[in-house]
Amino acid sequence: MTPQLTIPTSLEWHEDHLVILDQQKLPGAVEYVHLYTIKDYYDAIITLKVRGAPAIGITAAYGLAQAAGEYETESLEEFKTWFEKEKQYLLSSRPTAVNLSWALERLERELDQAGTVNEAKTDLLHTAIQIHAEDEDMCRRIGENGLELLHDAQRVMTICNAGSIATSKYGTALAPFHIGREKDRNFQVFACETRPVLQGARLTAWELQQSGVDVTLITDNMAAHTMKTKGIEAVIVGADRVAANGDTANKIGTSSLAILCKHFGIPFYVAAPSSTFDLTIDSGDDIEIEERSSTEVTTLGQSVIAPEGVPVFNPAFDVTPHDLISAIITENGILYPDFKQSIADTLN
Ligand SMILES: CSC[C@H]1O[C@H](OP(=O)(O)O)[C@H](O)[C@@H]1O
Predict the structure, then answer these.
(1) What number does the ligand 1 atom closest to the CA of 203 have?
(2) Which of 95, 269, 287, 337 could form an S-S bond across to 249 if both were Cys, CB 3.0 to 4.6 Å?
């Protein structure tokens, strides 16, 4: 029996709590985790059970809204003090993806408009649900805009997982492939495994197989040879934070692909919803790069792959300078250099 092809998703709101696909268990197991306390949400984000800039923002919004609904007080002042403390707690989980702060600051703006605690509780949950629904629309539009940009390309490379499970649905970098599949546009996707957490091998390869998109897995150090020998026609990646000048933070290894694209004359595209732009910073120099545990590098599953005590540098992201980016695909259209101007024109 041929398996049912679907575009997998990772987040589902269940009336009073969020259920997430445990992305740390993929591809070996498809398991779900029910999040009930704000610590459950924090732990899910910091341990990458849920990951991907938009998915992190949506999850944190539900977490804060759910906890707010359960916080007992009649005093709006006391409620706001509690809200600020829990907002800072969730913000401390991961620093690089701007969607986390973007989503929680949007909830805070709703809170500032509320006249009573009960009104605030209702508005916070409504806003979290709205953020979730809007993200699906943004990703679908990014997919359609990306499909147009890739109209002459078939063989495309990507890194990490900027896919459906990293967002509400469809993804950003992977959205053109999922939408293309629905329109019988069949891409040949080359997915970099993405050491050390292997989002490419474990997540993108799995996600694209679920959706029926042709995917070939390569190790990160095969990227240059693959571009040279497999006729790669474009590279498309996601984003965690795009600065006002177009400098883009994304999974570690992304800037290496951009440099290779310049060498081989291959277009390098970033796919990002407007919720991933941070106009408060002028350039990528101002983006905080998360550094994660050394064990992500020194172990592979249950195996230890490095000598005990070896010093490790484990930055989870890098910044691709805007002058290496050919175009930025957003839900509102394609942005081209000069990005400072095109971003300002589109997002202001
Ligand atoms: C549309 S997901 C954006 C971004 O998030 C991923 O990072 P992580 O897996 O550490 O959350 C990766 O950088 C994706 O490109």
Answers:
(1) 9
(2) 287
